[in-house]
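Researcher: I'd like a structural prediction for the single chain below. Treat it as a standalone chain; there are no partners to consider.
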Amino acid sequence: MNIWKDIAKNQVKPELFPVLVTISKGSSKKYQFMKEYGMLKLEKVLYSATCYPVNCGIIPRTLGKDDRPLEVLILCQEILDLYTIVECSPIGVIKTYENNRESEKIIAVPVIGMAYGFDTPVRNELLDSVYEELKPFFNIYSAKNAPGFREQAEGIGAVLAVEECMSRFDEIYSEI
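Model: Treating it as a single chain, here is the predicted structure.
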């Protein structure tokens, strides 16, 4: 089974979706999800003191502008194991620049316990601090190519980005 394309369509919604963990928080290893095989490929090792500040993953049945599954930055205290499925809700989106191309990344929280289930002003304050924490990582990570961190948007922008990537997947893979 290839989780990216074989999961039931009704399991993925713009406001609530499963995320397949592809990089654990604290790791210096960058894995790329190989959509053809449903497997992870070691893409690079971050040799500086830099490590991933959050768990990362992909949303099944999505396809970004970069022709890859839509990436997610999962906000939680725990280090999540690779290939774990986590139900998440989007709270923001950032645009980064990697390998000479722009990439959107959804910022999401696990719905288990819903520690981030609070009102909009508090959520936006949280996002501001998260953006400030992520900026240095992506600017160091992308230093060879261009400034890594480009712009940010709140919750509705994240839902719209997921919706767009779900539609792109459906257009290209309509037979699935």
